[in-house]
Amino acid sequence: MQELSNDQLEKLRRDINSVQGRFFHLLSVTVVVMLVLAVGMLLRVFPRFLWNLQSFEWEQNYIPQLLCGLVVLVLLLSGYVLEQRRNLRRTQDRLIQELIARETAERLAVIDPLTELYNRRYMTQAITREVARADRQNSRLAFLIIDVDGFKHANDSFGHLVGDRILREVALLLQRTFRTSDVISRYGGDEFLVLMVDVDDQKTASSEERLKSEVEKWNRTASIEGYQMALSCGTAIYRRGEDPKAILAAADQAMYEHKQRQASPAGSPV
Known about the structure:
Helix 1 (6-51) crosses helix 2 (53-59) and helix 6 (160-177) crosses helix 7. Strand 2 (183-188) and strand 3 form a beta hairpin. The chain is α+β, with helices and mostly antiparallel strands. The chain is built from eight helices and four strands; from the N terminus they run H-H-H-H-E-H-H-E-E-H-E-H. Helices cover 68% and strands 11% of the residues. It starts with 5 loop residues before the first helix and ends in a 9-residue tail after the last helix.
């Protein structure tokens, strides 16, 4: 699938707007031409009628020809305008379809099809973007790596369809827990990565507590019979000037340490 840049999508939008502008320009020119013809006809007929009745009577034989010519000219101009409008409409429809297709391709390139979260590719771009912004604003970022405990065992025991459902349920929990400004992605397999922007240690801890509460509520509903969800979470804070890769590695290490501290084999069939 071809990757499309924002510049290419923006150019398509400008082309669509240009087609719309050409149509309105053509319509304006048509109206002006018709007004000029109408005014010219009035100036040709009525002044002579008012100022020189005799001359008007001599020339009135030419008025039907003038009117007929005017009607023919208007009809030809109208036909031309309608044909150009159809051409512009076809061009606009083609550009809109191309824009939709390209935006769809762009979205599919960065969205995980199973969970409908961002994928690792997009998260890599987001980290670069948000780190640059945090450095400019002297703010902090939090990297949260979240792993589904016992996922392989649950996937093998309950089947892949249930395993896919577990991943989708985790994605929904993450979306309910974190802010819309935070970037949530499926980072690979049963591992998720959340990039929290403009945070401190307290906000990060509060988010982890909310996630824990959401998991507990989910388990009380027994959404999947015989399965209890448990998540391991590792967090690391990025500060200005630090290496994002090192912070990500620190979050990953914290997640594995959390997993080792889990007291029960949660995430396995009961």
